[in-house]
Amino acid sequence: MPRAREPGMLDDKDRQILNFLIEYYNEHGRSPTVREIQDALGISSTSVVKYHLKHLKDAGRIDYPRGLARGIEVQTVPRIKAVPWVGYIVAGQPIPVPGVTENEVEEWVSVPLDWLPRPKRRVFALEVRGDSMVDASIHHGDIVILEPVTPEDVRNGDMVAAWIRSAGETTLKCYYRGGDQVRLQPANAAYQPIVVPAEDVEIQGRVVAVLRQVRGCGSTAGGGM
Questions:
Q1: Active site residue 120
Q2: According to a count of CB atoms within 10 Å of the terminal CB, is the N or C end of the chain lower?
Q3: Cα gap 24→116, rounded to integer Å
Q4: Averaged in consecutive runs of 10 residues, what is the pLDDT profile of the chain (225 residues)?
């Protein structure tokens, strides 16, 4: 059994259960049972689930009346989806999406359901490194939300995360296919498009939303108004 913690302080398992409660409620319109929480998150026993539910209740995050199979209520349930954050778009490394399970995810991003064109579809989050898409309002440090797609689903003009096999690079670009070639188009005049054979490209996701952290204006030459 986990050791006691200070009231109001949530650990990783607390947050994982809370995210699951929110996502399950948003999808099904009701709360999950303790057994469903255990099965979905791979928790060792229902007693461990109940321990974390009690801690969430003590922290004021849920109402957890005993004796009701689906009586768990998240306080002020937001219409959000908990999205797994799986890494960066970095040249030289593939995006580690295939095979990732919820139990392996260490960080989650909360995304409003209204931002997702297909809220029930699986999506994942990546942090952008670089400025090749600034003219499409995608900046260094932004979080892009992507949905996995098949080659048949990709359309010209889609913004995608593409793995270029021969170069061993992952890149975020706009996708255009003509015949047996693919052009990966940046949105920055300082960068040249990447043109490669179609079989050399693996589309790992299509961008459906962007999260941005507001940055300060920094210092200015004039000093003041």
A1: no
A2: C
A3: 16
A4: 53 88 82 92 93 89 79 74 82 55 67 80 88 92 91 92 89 94 94 94 93 62 47
Q: Which of the listed residues 74, 97, 126 is the one where a domain comes to its end?
A: 74
Q: Nearest Cα to 77, choosing from 23, 119, 16? A: 23
Element housing 112 (H / E): strand 107-112
Q: Active site residue: 57, 110, 120, 132, which one?
A: 132
165 and 56 share a domain? no
Assigned token pair, 59: 């922290």
**Range(s) of the domain holding residue 50:** 12-74
Q: Are 52 and 14 in contact (CB under 8 A)?
A: yes
Query: Could you give the CA distance from residue 97 to residue 100 in angstroms, rounded to a whole number?
Result: 6
pTM > 0.85: yes or no: no
Whether 173 is a known active-site residue: answer yes
pLDDT at 215: 58
Q: In the beta sheet, which residues pair with residue 171?
A: 162
Q: Is residue 32 included in any domain, yes or no? A: yes
